[in-house]
Amino acid sequence: MTVVHDEVETAEGGRLSTQPDPVAPRAAQSSRLATARWLWRRLTSMRTALVLLFLLAVAAVPGSLLPQRSNDLARVDDYLARHGALARFMDRIWLFDVFTSPWFAAVYLLLVISLLGCLVPRWSMHARAMLRRPPRTPARLSRLPQHATFSTPLPVDAVVAAAQRTLRRRRFRTIVDDGDRGRGRSVSAEKGYLRETGNLFFHMAIVALLFGVAYGSLYGYRGDRVLVEAQVADPAKSSAQALLTDTQGQYDDFSAGRLVDTGNLAPWTVRLDSFVATYQSGTTTPKRYDAHMSYRTSPTAPWQTDDIRVNHPLHLGATKVYLLNHGYAPVFQLVSPDGKKKYTQSVVCPTLSTVTLISHCAVVFADLPDKSPSHTLGFDVTFLPTAQFVDGRPTSTSPQLGNPDAIVGVYSGDLGLGRAHSVYSLNTAHAQFEKTGNIVLLSKDPAFNVLTGLPGGWTLQIPAVGQWASFQVKRDPGKLVVLLAAATMILGILTSLRVRRRRVWLRATPGEEGSTLVEVGGLARTDADGFAEEFEGLVQRLTVATTPSPGRKE
Amino acid sequence: MSALAVIDASLAGTSNDLVTAAVFLYAFAMLGYAAEFAFGRRARRAPLVVHAATSLETVPPPVAEAHVLSEPPRRADRGVVLGRFAVALTVAGWAAHLGSVVTRGLAAHRVPWGNMYEFSSMVTLAGATAYLVLLLNPRLRPLVRPLGAFVMVPVVLTLGLGTTVLYAKAEPLQPALQDYWIKIHVVAAIIAWGTFMVGAVASALYLAKSRFEARLALAGDDPATVDETVGGGIMRKVPSAAELDRLAYRVNAFAFPIWTFAIVAGAIWAERAWGRYWGWDPKETWSFITWVVYAAYLHARATAGWKGRRAAYLALLAFSCLTFDYYIVNIFVVGLHSYAGL
Ligand code: HEM
Predict the structure, then answer these.
(1) pTM of the full predicted structure?
(2) ipTM exceeding the 0.95 mark
(3) Which helix (H) or strand (E) holds B103?
(4) What whole-number distance in Å separates Cα of residue A349 and Cα of residue A329?
(5) Which residue of A has its CA nearest to B335?
């Protein structure tokens, strides 16, 4: 490795990288070891890094243009359904799971190996360069790209001392050579070691960042859950609709890293007390959402309150709870003909439109104590927060509860309970359709605000409308490492791109009548742009520093 | 978030008038720079040429520079006057543009970068600012000046497209965008974008000029034949390929850490808003692709056999990725960022 200490030649040869060149295996050396060595050199060469970086970019493209399972499962299913055999083939080569695919992993693992292989020798080279003294003054300074001479009445020793001081102040590392090739005394100076330090930190930080990502995905988990406001949460379910405890079974959707002990998550509980959506006055544009929460960090801890907003999650130790979505949860009440029996449930109505909050849900009352077939009534409900008829068709003109209206389809009989089916729609395949009706919630007229004429004489009403909000619970223990690595990357790259490596030599030889002849030479080891001005300024300073002026103490 | 989110319609109108004025001023500036090429003599040479030879980086054959240098500089000819006029128009356009952005923010009581129109406006403002800042540097001025016409092209196009096709009325921000990270993340992205824009112009010109220089070298003793094409006339007045290459590198290397920061800030914001710092959303993916291709460009500049033209192609590819990230991903690809709004 001739790179660090060789002087002018290498630099002028135009090499910026201190990476050794990949050497082709020599015929005489065709052992396996040599081939392996050659391969390793290739892999850790700058050119390979370039190709791998490019491959990484190309590999990410399909992941952005095709729907991905991790982001949008429904669109992937839709794509598969619509494109048949081609899509199935694409699926087989992981095109819908690009970022977890073996080939994407192969590219970045190769990149990491290449990085490490490239970095380790550079660290040791850099460490040695830091310990080494600046190189000796070349014989002929006039051959350097930058060169200047001047003379001063000061003696040689004073010139050398002043030059050293000036250069040190400009953060050069300096060394004085007293026997300088028998010509006088000289100063060698070098600065900009931080450039390589920054570069190495930047590249190391990339590895650290990937480590943090991997750690987080092995030890982290994510769970989604819909909660209903506590006041309306179903009493039959002892307000469990409003509560979430951090156990796997409580989540609607849960995914955990391979090394998570899912039987032993955090001991906290949260409750949705109320949810408030605020809109720009007179518009359907949302202004803010506030989910007022109660929480306790363990079953014995006292309850505390806090709000969850967009961009403002709730922190529960290392876990955070985020607000994802919201909508209406009407309370449905089925009243017996004599008015004595009442069955109540709050139902989460998923939104069909996030702008107008038109929602749709299914409500089932089973095991009714009457003579209707199978004792089950099912309601297919479309909920309109601000109902209005546009072209004879009902729609909602606002997400707020201006004129709430439920359009209800009534079914009885076998509603497929016990068979796998989405809770948000009715399984009417074997059911009996009874009628369609309408509940105008704010109407005072009993002809409109309850639905009568149901089988068995029951009536349906909606005494209250609550709201639901969906939350994501997330724990990612690798996050801090990732953040620190990212910060290091930015600082490293800034240092590496800003700091410039410069070498300057100054030779002082005795001239006539006790004066001293000063010769300065300069070399930019990286980024020569602007070095001429920099050198000129430095020479100026050196001239000033070696000019005797009675009033100044140097 | 303040309670008064009422839009000040008259201020919003002022903002629209100012941005229209800016588009026209920039367009006239572009014509001015072009006229400088058409009617002016050879551009004055930068002292930089002299120490080009001291660079550690490859120095292309000096034929072209020597040829251009041999032309005696003339002062205050028509071209120079036109050029100065163009710079004045650029500054006027920039002032109107800045005024438009500020009044827009005041009208909507929020940061003026909440939808694609506003983002286009900010990005071109950043690009024009980057150009003017480079002009302020006396050492770089002679090098950057001839780029004026070429910088104004993307500025006028982007801003023109923004004020027409992408235009959106001043409205308050959606809840997801109401966070102080929008300021940090988006401002960094805007600055990086505008700077990369100038870098891309320099890279494109570098490619054209280096080809011109190669042709000039081939033409040997009879360089006049090369001049006869229209492109030749312009190319002669553009800085040397070596200077353009270095300028492109400096500009891109300045923007790269800012872009890195923008991505990191975006990740921090995503963590606050969506519960994960990275999710391979299409917008995130394309920012990543852009970042990687710019990193490849920086590597290429230090790799034998890749510096020069191939590196410049990489820089242009990286800028195309950035443009794709902005227009195509925002408009056509479904993702979490889609709410940025047209
Ligand atoms: C995701 C992966 C990578 C990124 C984002 C990246 C980024 C960068 C950047 C931005 C620079 C510019 C610093 C400068 O111009 O001084 C740089 C320099 C460098 N990179 Fe990388 N790099 C990556 C991977 C690698 C790998 C795998 C290698 C080695 C095989 C490598 C070797 C180098 C070397 C040797 C330099 C210094 C060039 C010089 O001396 O100017 N990089 N890298």
Answers:
(1) 0.80
(2) no
(3) helix B78-108
(4) 6
(5) A71
